[in-house]
Amino acid sequence: MSVLQDPPAATAPEPAAPAKPTGAPGTSGIGLLVVRIAVLTIVILWLIPTLGLLVSSFRVRAITETEGWWTFLANPFDTAQWTLQHYRDVLGGRSGFGNAFFNSLAVTIPATVIPITVAAFAAYAFSWMHFKGRQILFIGVVALIVIPLHLALIPILRLYTQGVTLFGVTLIADLNLVGSYPAMWLAHTGFGLPLAIYLLRNYIGSLPSSIIESARVDGATHFQIFTRLVVPLSVPALAAFTILQFLWVWNDLLVALVFLGGTPEVRVLTMALADLLGAFGQNRHILPAAAFVTMVLPMAVFFSLQRYFVRGLTAGAVKG
Fold first, then answer.
1. Count of domains forming the chain
2. Which domain holds residue 59?
3. pLDDT of 281-312, one tens digit each?
4. How much is the pTM?
5. Which of 27, 92, 152, 320 has its CB 3.0 to 4.6 Å from that of 23, i.e. a possible disulfide?
């Protein structure tokens, strides 16, 4: 007679011991400290020239021309070395800075809005609209990024002044745009579009396809999808390029010299700043004040949009 025996109860496996960190204790803390020290050092080195410019803009001419800006540390509360006269000279009517400021606004605002608007539409088309040659066109647009701006100045200038004639047939008439704001708007739009389309296409293309498909199922047109879904979701990328384009156009001197000329009626701030120095550098004592006047608006634009800047540049870099 056989005796049946119950099998022994299975025992649960013991949980594996957590892996011990391979690095030495305190390694992560030391690495974080090193990173913070490096960032702080870079910030200080970056701010030193700006601090020197600020100090020099408020010091009297005699001290500015004979001493370094750091000498104010010896007696910073000596009121005899401080003055506001440099800013009065810059903002006064004789310098023409007021007119140049509004000229810069008239150039910069349209030259920023136009390429962003065109690039946003183009980026949506390259991302979510299917048509023949889409990839080839996008590669061609991206390839334009590597073309130096300087190579295009003379051909564009000839287009503005002479038009385009082929085998005796006038394809484009004389536009007569030199010395006008539209010449600057078109030039900066052409120079800024390739990078704008590339950045915005990467961002818009990384948006969830389920959102776009749901809108199509609901009967939304491409224009409705773009204006009601894509644009609100793409604010970080749009703000990031707004900063880049605004700073580029605001600080531009070369394109302004070529297409606007140096007449006081249309000259921008960078041209007024260069003219302020004088032929023999006799006005160099007021250059720091003039430089700070030109920096006010770009700094305001950057700090108002800086929370979108890094997010907008990196959001479309990795999909997932």
1. 2
2. 41-83
3. 667 788 888 888 888 888 888 888 777 766 65
4. 0.78
5. 27
